[in-house]
Amino acid sequence: MTARPIDAALWRTAAVLVLGTFMATLDSTIVSVGVDTLADEFGAPVTGVQWVTTAYLLAVVTAVPASGWLADRFGGRRVWLTAVVVFLLASLLCALATTLPALIAFRVLQGLAGGLLPPTGQALLARAAGRDRIGRVIAVVGLVPLLSPVLGPLASGTILAVADWPWLFYVNLPIGVVAMILARRWVPASEPGGKGERFDFRGALLLSPGLAVLVFGLTWFEQGTPVVAGIAVAAGVVMLAAFVRHGLRADAPLLDPRLFTRPPFGVAALALVLLGASVFGTMFLLPLYLQRGPGLSTWDTGLLLVPQGIGAAAGSILVNRLVDRISPRTLVLSGIGLVALGTAPFTQLNLGLPDWMIVVSLLLRGFGAALIGAPVMTIVYRRVEPARLPRAAGALNLLNTLGGSIGTAVLAVVLQARLAARGPDVTAAFADAFWCVLGLAVVAVAGATRLPRAGEAAPDKEKGHADA
Alpha-carbon distance 282 to 97, whole Å? Predict the structure, then answer.
């Protein structure tokens, strides 16, 4: 059967919903370049100011698991609009904060709202597009999460060059207001589909805090507090293990653990986790290297990272044309290969890399990443019944967020250890860390070979998938 064309109405819906994802993902990295500025403003150490970013990411991780139930209970568009309102309010409060603790608290509120925007928006878009068009639409809107690690530092450096730090948060206000106005006109309303299911409070008290505590512990390893970090990591693992046990017994768990044992969700989950870790991990390591090694300014560093965004844009165009014509597995394996090829030169930083090689490597990485995310999400969305899309979208976004958060935290620990081992040879320490990034690609290949060959799949009606 010939796939329906994507009409102007669907593109308008996609453009509005992607604004929410853009705000949420951009704010995960926009503060990174402004850490020193905030430290001077509040008279605080850099380690304290770093919590402005960490608190946001932890809040996002906490909010994502509940997104599916909220959309089922109250309707996707209503949840999305409410999240935008809260996000804008939190952005205003961040800009007006007069103390560092207040700024961190408002960033938590901002992260809780931001964590709802991508999964709820994707579920609304998947429902509007239908199975025959979702691949082509996701190929375009999926570009936004790939661009945020690149655009965040660049936007931050640009804003701080011409304005004071509150504008890092004021910039969200016009975007959010436009999104709210257009959403009421162009985003179709969705009826609640939860059938009166009760919220899984026990699961929420185990899953979201467990993930947040785990990420918190990993970040504290980087700050040189191994005892606190070890206790937090252990507590997070115990809470997650308890959630798995609870999820296997509950009738309607917040996230069904059995989902990950059934194809293609298990291998799709692995691919998204590793993609998040690779993209965000590299955008953590590379700017640090460029500023500590060659000694580039924040502005020059941001410009040198732009090729990854250009590569991602080119890759999304290709995916849009091919996702309905060839096997998603072929696209994913090709993407992983390009990411690995683009990562390999960074393992040789100690030998010296010219700027042109960094540019080419980032182009390859961006292009390859675009070939992974959209096809993986397409495979899953095509197997899920429309009424269950919010749960599936929440699970997929949780995995990508976790990959970025945990991957970055682990790479920070690896880098800290290698810096201590290498001593003054900073460049070699960064090269060692990039070997870990390359290793992620090798593991991803093993999982991606198990993805289905066919581009289309019938919706899965098994209970495990239904509860997605």
Answer: 31
Tens digit of each residue's pLDDT (9 = 90 or more) over 425-465: 888 988 999 999 898 888 888 777 877 775 444 444 444 33
Residue length, the chain?
468
What the block records as the tokens of 106 is 């408002």
DSSP track, 72-123: HHH-HHHHHHHHHHHHHHHHHHHHH--SHHHHHHHHHHHHHHHTTHHHHHHH
Residue 378: name the closest of 360, 390, 393 by CA.
393
Render pLDDT for 121-138 as a digit per residue (tens, 0 to 9).
988 888 888 877 887 887
pLDDT number for residue 461: 44
Count CB neighbours of 145 within 10 A.
Answer: 26
Q: Classify burial at 9, counting beta carbons within 10 Å of its beta carbon; exposed 0-12, middle 13-18, buried 19 or more.
A: exposed
The secondary structure of residue 4, as a DSSP letter, is: P
Q: How far is CA 396 from CA 97, 233, 234, 453, in A?
A: 33, 23, 25, 20
